[in-house]
Amino acid sequence: MSKLNSSIETPLSESVLADIIPKAKDYALMHGAGMRSRTNFSEDSLINAPFALLPSSFPRKEFEKAVKIQPVLNELIHRVAHSYSFLKETLKNACEVDDFTNKLFNIYETVRAEGPAQKLSLGLVRSDMMLESKCLPDDISTYCCWKQIELNTIASGFGWLGPLSAEIHRFVLMCLFKLESESRFLITMFSLFSCNSLASI
User: Quick one: which of 31, 38, 50, 117 has the most CB atoms within 10 Å?
Assistant: First the structure.
């Protein structure tokens, strides 16, 4: 199976990784990709929120399809969130065995009983999706379509990491292209120097 084209030749060498990883981590922290450590909590320090060093290729056609369907998925989540009878019946068994779900549903029922404090509501929904690489057994294409993995409503606190990840990737790619350009320059200069040296002998 062929692979999607990448703008960077991988794997990166150990020397390049040793140079770029600290820069990427510093850039990420300075631009808001920080979080408190769960195992070593401190009010005076942050650690990096997880991020991928390099971007993944994603076909524009499939990306545009995903963007186009988001309003439909968002409306679906909105309708489910406001359907008390559906939620009560669907989560009944989960509430009996899962304390976290039960507490959330109790909060939901309390808010519902008290009545909304305002007419408008805001939903933060994160869609996780991946490219399907083999829809059919004899499919030899790079990909066939994207598939929805899950919808997250609780884990949307790091919403800023979406656009920030793109900024981190731009920074990393800029650094890598700069290193590559400098490397090519040095190789060219070395070649010219060697040729001139040989010519003068």
Answer: 31
Tell me, yes or no, whether 22 lies in a domain: yes
Q: Residue 140 region, left (φ>0) first, then alpha (ψ -120 to 50), else beta?
A: alpha
pTM over 0.70: no
Name the CA dihedral angle for 2, 131, 58, 10, rounded to a multiple of 10 degrees: -50
- What would the pLDDT profile of 89-117 be if each residue is shown by its tens digit? 999 999 999 999 999 999 999 989 998 88
Domain count of the fold of the chain: 1
